[in-house]
Protein 1
Amino acid sequence: MQQTLTPHVYWAQRHEDIYLRVELIDAQNLDIGVRDNVLQFRAQGHGARGQNDYEFSLPFLNAVKTEVSHRSTQRQVNITVRKQLSGWWDRLTLQEKKPLFLAPDFDRWVDESDAEMELLEKEEKKNRLNMESRLSDPSFITLKKGFLFTYNLVQFLGFSWIFVNMTIRLFILGQDSLYDTFYTISDVMFFCQILASVEVLNAMFGVVKAAVVPAFIQVVGRNFILFIILGSLQEMHNKPVVFFVFYLWSSIEIFRYPFYMLGCIDTEWKTITWLRYTIWIPLYPLGVLAEAVAVVQSISVFDQSRLFSIPLPEALGSSVSFSCVLYVYLPLMVIGELAIIVMKNGS
């Protein structure tokens, strides 16, 4: 008659699971279950004492679920038991003295801090998958397309109004229209450029498949020019550079936003596509040049007005002119805009 023996068992844990590895080759007639919070294992196979019947019982330290999953391979039996409550156990069994057949599974062993990091990564992955599933939901896609279409339509109408208004005024008033552009156009330009901040958020939250950095550089750069360089200095309002900055910005956008609008309804108009990817090649560098001219012209104004001056301790002096910031900003602006050009060419 065959003698019933105990196999070698190795264990490890996570906050939600108990992992057991039973060293039993070619295990057959498996009977594994949890009864009264005790794992009971019976099987036939080749273990430490050769081909025999093997069994063991493990009374758990804390409550576990009765559902047990197991997978038998040629060399071992892997068992997973779910904890009733997520948490870290000081030991596996109810009795303090560890059974002789039980040992740590160092291949899967982690300490509590590593397990917490693993749990956080698991939660992040789960949240990411949930977000991806929501993004792929047909109702969400319809809502997203509706939102993007509306946004691009509003921006198209705003920049179209700017472009058409400036063009008509140029034909009617000629050179005189260069000097009052800010007074007639700035309100709509303020609105459009503030609204353009939505593009950075769309890229950040994955609403659109676009790089965050180029969108951020362009939106922040334009708003800096519009609100700080042009908007805060009354002396800059009547300068012709305002006309060129506004006209070049709007010339680019009246082709970009219709391209995005058509994409929202899965439609392509080849002329718009060609213009969207071609017209910016000459206009974008010209726009950067106009922005640089505006910055250079504002430096002397900031020096005289002391607007936005940076206060210093009395031992060092009264203040530093904001123009010092512009001397640093100017090359950074050019580098940033060149980086956007390289990224767009790469895409």
Note: The chain has two domains: 9-108, 136-346.
Protein 2
Amino acid sequence: MRAAAGEVAAVLCLLALAAALDFGYHHAEELEAYLREVHAAHPALTHLHSIGRSVEGRDLWVLVLGRFPTQHKIGIPEFKYVANMHGDETVGREILLHLIDYLVTSYGRDPNITKLLNNTRIHIMPTMNPDGFEATKVPHCYYSRGRYNKNGEDLNRNFPDAFENNNVTIQPETRAVMNWIKNETFVLSANLHGGALVASYTFDNGNSVTGSSKGYSRSPDDDVFIHLAKTYSFNHASMYKGTGCDSRQTFPDGITNGYSWYQLEGGMQDYNYVWGQCFEITLELSCCKYPPADQLEKFWTDNKVALVEYIKQVHLGVKGQVTDRNGNPIPNAIVEAQGRSHVCPYRTNAHGEYFLLLLPGKYVINATVPGFKSMLKTVEIPDNTANFNALKQDFSFSEASIRTRPASCPKVPLIPRPWLTDSGSLNKRQPPRRVMQNLKWPNMLYLGGC
């Protein structure tokens, strides 16, 4: 009897600790302790793991939430939030902790949150740059060395670039995220920054094919990205107003194409979309990068609804499996909507699954198994986000069991550099922001936090 009472007391203690999240800044030890407490209090709903370590050896913690938190389940899409990529941009780090608190305490009580977690696997990384956060000894609204990792590298310029050979040395934090993306079937994502108030979407870089010569770098899924950015902006307390942070920054509807704002090479957003088959947008959440702690509660209130509504968008579009005549999954089959061919063809995972984010409407979905005839199916896609379940459309190939190789995907820049003409001479029409990007950070303050 005493043992049972002791166990109950321990559980109640854990629940109390998990519920005691304050509106303050949580350094490495406190952040880890909180994540462990949440997992201990909700072991069936959460899975805590480290995807790697920073330069200084700090764990890159990820808390996974959902009905099946420990592993992917067929038909359930994977979603992720990443914050604190720049160590001195701190609001996202803290509001993701409060999002975790809100999700676990609402599960089983709030029908919408319960359905969301039952039908979505949500990965939350509060900090991608723990070393930079710890190095920011004097909080500043505009700039500190804590922006960079311990090696002095900007992690949002450190990914392979689809349009330019950026020749960067991949940092431990970047490599960990790249492996994470490779090992999961992420469908939708957002990375949280500070220094502006806007939702920015792909492409951040580009060339004449994507329209960058006209100041806008358009992806094949531009309509979906605009919808995703507006979903966040219009559910935010004030982002949709588009007023920005000063008279030089105005963003209609609170959104912007990344390249239209300023060119960025080696960014995580474009890497997710090109190589990870994951739609990611960048959320700039505060004009002040490292605001006083007494403002954090308002930031949470301003972003709470938007954070949840954005996750729901992972259920846009169509999903399904590609199988052979025996019902065995066919991995690496290419599945794309006609007219939306991606730089790297979108292909099925090890379970033969595909997920395509598409707005409601009629589409022709093309499934291709290399060496065999393509299969086309016309689908009418409704808005199923409220039902937390995208339209299901499977493909079955009648041939015998098939094993395919991955579709080819370039490892080097795809097309000639956008600032060069066909003859290789300098394109004099290249916007001056290209020059601005090469300047040191203090000269780039007007560019915000990306």
Note: The domain at 28-315 is CATH 3.40.630.10 (Aminopeptidase).
Protein 3
Amino acid sequence: MGDERVDAMEIDGQQRQEVAAAVPDGFNADYLRIYYGKLFPYVDFFKWLAYGNDAKHPGCDQSYIGRRELSFTLENDIYLRFQSFDSAAELETSIKEKCPFKIDIGPVYSVDPAKRHAYAQSGNNVFVPVERELIFDIDISDYDDVRYCCSGADTCLDCWPLMTIVIKILDTSLRGDFGFNHILWVYSGRRGVHCWVCDSRARKLSNEQRSAIADYFRVYKGGENSLKKVSLTGPVLHPFLARSYTDVLKCFFEDKLLHSQQLFASEERCQKILELIPDENVASELHDKWQGNRRSSISKEDVNAARWEQLKTTLQSGKHKTQGLRRCVEEIVFSYTYPRLDMEVSKHMNHLLKAPFCIHPKTGRVCVPIDPNNCEDFDPMAVPTLSQLLGELNAAGMQIDSENDLERTSLEKYIRFFRTSFLQPMLKACKEELEAAYSAKLQQSKNTLSW
């Protein structure tokens, strides 16, 4: 079959099974239509965004899901904002009909966003965002100054672990320091990860509170022109930073990054690290030592570890115990490994973020959930692609309208994880909160009556 374009009818199982298994790589509206027709998890997706308000319980807010903005980007960059849906069936019909190349999720507004113009006359504060998950967006392209294997949107297994570190650090702190439980990590489909904190407490945070949480995680600062982006001030590290350093960053830097990125393998790379040392005498002392190394018998593999050890020994020796140098080793490690967040995305309730289970148009990969407990096993190169999924459906001999399409594909394990590890525990908590709030309300009205 080679690179021929696959006819949509053929993919729908009209031809013999053995011919239909291979599907040319790529991303197009025909492929996408089949994905939305057979694999997109509409019911799970809708249940997530309804947060229990789609049930029959009298305490449910029936208007809740209909006030959520979904934005569609169609072929040729046609942009449809402020879509809203009252049921999973309505959402499914619209997606199948419009075949969006991208779906973004916005906030829950005070009124139905699709009807916002009707409220425009009645004053300023009628159409405002009132609820939104606490979100984080991290792109590996923001690490281009500390990775030497790839740049821009490209990733490989040498630099992807930088994203694994993001998940480990943020997930541990969001749960341990902030007490959040319902956190969804999603691969962006190309160059990064998205985090959705979905506890009701997180969804109700004001913009000021969101900013405070984002600032709590902010260590990497400074514009493109400032050489030193990390300054760890004060006599002791904040407990969160100390824990991040000892539990995750130090080992990752020394055991993996030094070697995978060959951080000391050239004059230019060494210079970059020396520029992070505030004392010129110490920097030049190290530079001379490393020049000497070049003439010694240190092998290419060992040069990174050897030079790092020399730097640590020099900076931590008795004669350099000045305040400015004391933190320098940690600052270098933080500069190269600590999460670099897109702060604006987290600070404001009205930011849109790409929905899980979309297909990335550049890579054809599905935006799948990542298990934070096993994030080091996640391989972005192994994520199912659109053409791979269609090939899997074909290989199974697609029966039209089959109930079990999903089970025949490599997407099934990701949707199962979403459902069992994230959605079900979260909906259980939503139900308990809803019932507790409803009981309290009933009790309050009883008390008022009895008075």
Note: Residues 29-219+341-443 form a domain with the DNA primase, PRIM domain fold (CATH 3.90.920.10).
